[in-house]
Amino acid sequence: MQKHESSSSTTHVTHKDSGWRLFLRTVIARAYPRLIGQQREPSWLIFEVVMPIGTTIAYVLVYKALRAPEEYIGFVVMGGAMTAFWMNVLWSMASQLYWEKETGNLALYIIAPNPKMAVLLGMALGGMAATSLRALIVILIGSLLFDVTYRVTDFMQLFAVFLLTMVALYGMGMMLASAFLLFGREAWNLVSLAQEPIFLVSGFFFPLKALPFWVGIIASIVPVTLGMDAMRQLVFPSAFPFGFLDVRTEIAVLAGLAVVFLVSAKWLLDYVERLAVREGRLTESRR
């Protein structure tokens, strides 16, 4: 009688994340390269620290020569710090998907099961964390060089303004990432075109109130415009006469912009994904 021995085999079940777990892990995974990459590429310090502080020093010297009010010195230092965020949004967010397409990585994002919104959110959080350190360095150097003093009138409002500004600003970057991708090769030109005009109309180096009212209203589409104006009023109490709008009004507008940009980013990202699946292309230009 032949004896058959049955060998028991162990079945290995691979756990696959889904839902909010997959979303969270995707955000962390996409933010990680931004945080580590900032430390491994010292040349980026030139763009995010040296260049903003150089422009800041130039404006401060001009205001000192003109005997402008002392508040202007603080305005310039804060504006120099915020330029780091705007540059990060333009070059590391808005044009990111286009660059990924050029390097051949975008197709992997499209076919991967990870939520596409989580990919962009990870980019935003990673870039925001790294850029915040650069902005703090600019503020520290500028404050020490020019003896700028700060006196916060309301910490809760200041925190709310900064948080809403970052959410709205990077939401705008997420929206532009999909929008610029649809323009194809024009993305680079659009990024370059948007850089300097925003520096002017958003009041990075002077009070927004110095511009005509209608210009300030149009410039308020960019979240950093009202964000800087509100933070200046809260950090420099004597700056209230230079304020463009009331702080509470600016907080409400920033909250609205955050919602609009995040919803628009989700809609555009879904549109790009549908375009890729349905027609096998990622831009609006017909081949």
Integer-rounded radius of gyration: 23 Å
Measured as a percent range, the helix fraction is over 70%
Oligomer: single chain
Count of beta strands: 0
**Succession of helices and strands:** HHHHHHHHHHH
Low-confidence stretches: 1-10
Overall shape: it is: elongated
Q: Could you report the average pLDDT, rounded to the nearest whole number?
A: 80
Strand count, sense and closure of the main sheet?
A: none
Structure report:
The structure is a single chain. This protein has 287 residues and is mainly α. It has one domain. 73% of the residues lie in helices and 0% in strands. The protein is built from 11 helices and no strands. The protein has helices at residues 19-40, 44-65, 71-94, 96-103, 106-111, 116-146, 155-182, 187-201, 213-219, 223-235, 247-279. Helix 6 crosses helix 7 (155-182) and helix 10 (223-235) runs antiparallel to helix 11 (247-279).
